[in-house]
Amino acid sequence: MLTLHHLEYSQSFRVLWLLEELGAEYELKIYERDTETYQAPPELKKLSPLGSAPVITDDKVILAESSAIIDYILDEHPDSGLRVSPDSGNRVRYLFWMHASQGSMMSLMLMEAVFQILISRVPFLIRPIIKAILEQASQNLIKPRMTSLLKIAEADLQLSKYFAGDRLTTADIAMVYPMAAAKDRFYLDADYPECNDWLVRVQQSESFKSAAAKDGRDSIVLRV
Amino acid sequence: MLTLHHLEYSQSFRVLWLLEELGAEYELKIYERDTETYQAPPELKKLSPLGSAPVITDDKVILAESSAIIDYILDEHPDSGLRVSPDSGNRVRYLFWMHASQGSMMSLMLMEAVFQILISRVPFLIRPIIKAILEQASQNLIKPRMTSLLKIAEADLQLSKYFAGDRLTTADIAMVYPMAAAKDRFYLDADYPECNDWLVRVQQSESFKSAAAKDGRDSIVLRV
Q1: Contact yes or no for A53/A44 (Cβ under 8 A)
Q2: Any idea which fold A91-206 has?
């Protein structure tokens, strides 16, 4: 049986949601972050080839990397309809959001998180300089790219309720973490009503709610 | 016909290589970076929804995001063998490297590049402080993760010549850019003989060489 090794407040929530949406049988192990460093505990680091979550174990398979795990689970459930097939008119949108989630949005949100951690950790006396430099970098490098992505998201969600058409797919499941992080970091403001509606809508789905109940935390993203 | 909008010294080289490997018919447009900011020129920014390369246009389709483009092109060439199918024993490795390329390695290499740019741009007087802080962050946050990834890569390449088995797949094509960047940033040292051999081997393939000839640059990665 597949075991999901889930780290609280982390990207692995998406895999938990996917498993709930599929009604799959699985075992769930939840790990807590170190309260000072926010890092994964040693037992998860030892297990995961990336030293982080999510990681799944399934017989002899040990697999890390959110999107690889999503694809692996989709392979096991070929009739789920959660992966948009190449002959569908929604395939291009599906591919874009599945990959933009990790390839662009998470990479920007990770940089934003690293900047915040750096600002909070540097010695008090030089903090104003570091803060000014990193906030400038965030304005120049992160914000324009996030804005471009959110504008495309807003336009796509005007066309249909979900990222790849009229029903939930793993494009939505992949996107929920960076979108929740974007909301948390104040990127997802009133300029993006469709994105905000989508975030509320998916969080109210039965499968998300049962995943959240198993997770047992008040947020899916880490708040530093 | 598909047009690849390729930015010099950028991730879009991978799409160029893929098209050459497939022997596909396509049009190539090459864009030059701004010599001061290294950014893409305005005409590419206008075209690409992410303001960056690669982007492809194909009839009514405009698609950005390297891995999404790779999947889109693979859909058009279902018999290429470059995408490992779900029933193959190499599927898990294929999924891991296809997604780890953008989800983990490029995201770390991007952060490294941003740190380098920040160090080079801050006023001279505070540069030593910034350099110390960002190099420390690189040591703590980037290096351990890159080392984990490269160790897995080294172990996988001991098992077979390519990332997903004995023949070239898009896992290799996706990985060439972060691996070349890792080499350029001195991560890929003598501790990783298999990785270094792989990098030489793929660069000597006919399709890579013809892509490099069309690209016309001496490096695929940007050197700041």
Answers
A1: yes
A2: Glutathione S-transferase Yfyf (Class Pi); Chain A, domain 2 (1.20.1050)
